[in-house]
Amino acid sequence: MKTVAVLIAAYNRKQTTLSCLNSLQALQLPGDVKLEIFLTDDASTDGTAQAVCNLYPQVHLLHGTGSLYWAGGMRYTWAKALESAADYYLLLNDDTLLQPDAVVRLLESAALHKHSVIIGATCDAHTGEASYGGWRLNSR
């Protein structure tokens, strides 16, 4: 069994965060792959943490101080996720909705490009146009 740890930081975007978690729940995963979701809520006041706890009890819900912001939240989340010794780590913004085959495609890329950082492209939900993508580097 391979484990993909999904790392998310959230603050006061309850519906956005829940939509992201919903897209993770809808993923098509190979039978030998499981997701382990780590989410740091940085002291949201809009009920994000409680909603995640109620709707997604399997999520490792971590609590920030309110002063982590995105970068600090992701560092904190990563530190906790490393304890799980996952095979892969997927860093995900809470406003990202994954296509159902996203993890399958990422794992296929990882198998072809061992010891690499794989960066997925994003697209506008309404137009389908690419809004961000990565680059392939041949050296450091």
Written account of the structure:
The chain is of the alpha/beta class and 140 residues long. It is 32% helix and 22% strand. It has four helices and six strands; from the N terminus they run βαβαβαβαββ. The protein has helices at 14-25, 48-55, 69-82, 102-112, and strands spanning 2-10, 33-41, 60-63, 88-91, 122-123, 130-132. The strands form two sheets. Strands 3-2-1-4 form a four-stranded parallel sheet, sandwiched between helices. The chain has a two-stranded antiparallel sheet with strand order 5-6. Helix 1 runs parallel beside helix 2 (48-55). The protein is globular. It starts with a strand and ends in an 8-residue tail after the last strand. The model has no long low-confidence stretch (mean pLDDT 91).
Task: Lay out the secondary structure.
Layout: E1 2-10, H1 14-25, E2 33-41, H2 48-55, E3 60-63, H3 69-82, E4 88-91, H4 102-112, E5 122-123, E6 130-132
Parallel strand pairs: 1-2, 1-4, 2-3
Antiparallel strand pairs: 5-6
Helix pairs in contact: 1-2
Key attributes of the depicted protein:
22% strand; 4 helices; four-stranded parallel beta sheet; two-stranded antiparallel sheet
Our Rg estimate from Cα atoms comes to: 15 Å
Unreliable segments (pLDDT under 50, ≥5 consecutive)? Answer: none
Total number of helices: 4
**What proportion strand?**
15-25%
Number of strands: 6
- Helix and strand element order: EHEHEHEHEE
Specify the structural class.
alpha/beta
Distance between the termini: 31 Å
Main beta-sheet annotation: 4 strands, parallel
Which descriptor suits the 3D outline?
A: globular
The portion of residues assigned to helices is: 25-40%
